[in-house]
Amino acid sequence: xxxxxxxxxxxxxxxxxxxxxxxxxxxxxxxxxxxxxxxxxxxxxxxxxxxxxxxxxxxxxxxxxxxxxxxxxxxxxxxxxxxxxxxxxxxxxxxxxxxxxxxxxxxxxxxxxxxxxxxxxxxxxxxxxxxxxxxxxxxxxxxxxxxxxxxxxxxxxxxxxxxxxxxxxxxxxxxxxxxxxxxxxxxxxxxxxxxxxxxxxxxxxxxxxxxxxxxxxxxxxxxxxxxxxxxxxxxxxxxxxxxxxxxxxxxxxxxxxxxxxxxxxxxxxxxxxxxxxxxxxxxxxxxxxxxxxxxxxxxxxxxxxxxxxxxxxxxxxxxxxxxxxxxxxxxxxxxxxxxxxxxxxxxxxxxxxxxxxxxxxxxxxxxxxxxxxxxxxxxxxxxxxxxxxx
Length: 390
Prior knowledge:
The chain has 390 residues and is of the alpha/beta class.
């Protein structure tokens, strides 16, 4: 009897021990934060997931960045020296990037005996565009007409300036109040064929005068502003027809005044957006973006406060551009921007009458003989831009 009781107690003890063991095991398994294996496995999975995410997401992010970079079409731009302000304003206001272009090329260049540094080619003749050093830019229309007649791959794709409004400064000590008063005066201007010279001739004709009624003195060899200023001071000339920046320099020195011109003048496409037509056929989207950039720059010129534009040129441009405008005092730069409004169109649309007039001038000067507007202009890129703009 005693033995049976002992056996039963032993069995109960074993059962209790087993139950306790099972409970401990269950506690260890189910208890949060318990067990080394449970603690290490979860973070290991998390790290693995993060690493996988990093491996799979990082290239995608990098590809997106690369795609964004590739969206900007590389473009080699050229600008005439007298209108280099056009790309400079574009750079100051980030216009080229906004329109999907990234300027390339440029660098140190010799212009009129001095070194000019810019992220584009400076110069008014189309040879760089023909050679491929530039794809297009803003140039004097007249200088491209002879190569076009000879079969060169050049086309005007947008207008930059179809106004023949000259900027004429006159010595303050002279009683000159109207264009008619220019008769008998010595007038300095650029070399023949450049816009200031042509606008002067156009004005004289409109007021009943001719080259014979004045003495026109062509000036070259460097920035015209300082040269003409010195000539005015010495009395070597009485007036001058100048590009905007050179006129602004002369006016800011207090020697001359701006001649008010209240004469209706015919439209002449003096300055154009010109491209290499072979390159353009292969890169039509780049041409559309170029027109977009020029259009936005014209809008800035005509609507933005000249003080703000001047500040942008002086403070929001690369050192090589900033240095160019820093050689003038701020008043001159502001005046320069103000005068631009007289010389540039409000939009990039091409007035065919203005094209015909510049061709007629070229014929009179003996530059071309049989050139037609259809040979000069290609409007399909402009039409595409205007369609997208709407």
